[in-house]
Structure formats: structure tokens, C-alpha cells
Prior knowledge:
Helix content: 10-25%
Number of strands: 4
Low-confidence stretches: none
Shape: globular
Distance between the termini: 25 Å
Amino acid sequence: MNRGNPHGLRISRVPGKPVQRDEYGDYEIHLWLRHDGKFDGDITLQLSPCETELLHAQLCFALDGEPVTTYADVTPGCRKGPGSLASRMRWP
Length: 92
């Protein structure tokens, strides 16, 4: 995220931590914060199941037409092949 600009606030995913659910059923995305190129800390973005589903749909639409870079067994259906669901639908 925030590619190409080492200055200011940068946010990126923590490489070894997958998205997971917490004890309340919300989803956690672990992030690193850097300010002007220096590590500043970790934060966790928490999303409800509804927010997570909406983010998933928006990402599938945003990635439509981009090459798939994940293994077939972990690739969501909306990203499989040229006839994928995202290719056939319109985002409101």
C-alpha cells in the first residue's frame, strides 16, 4: 500500500499474519504503520462480517481483468477465469 512514496504515513499488511476471526465473530486484518520510512507500530483493523463481505466484493470487482496470482485451491470463485462472477456483474 502507498507504493512509491517513502514519506508520510504508510500502511501495509503484516506478512505472516492471515486474516482471522476474533472471539466476537469480527474479522481482524493485522497492519504495520510506518511514518517517513520508520516503523511506527502495529494495528489491527476489525471488520464485521457484513463489512468484510462488502470489502471482498469490492476487491473482486477492482481486481477484475487482473491476472490471478494465487493457487487455484485458495482463489475465490469471483476471480476464477474470464467468465468469473465479477466479469458478469455490475457494481451499483
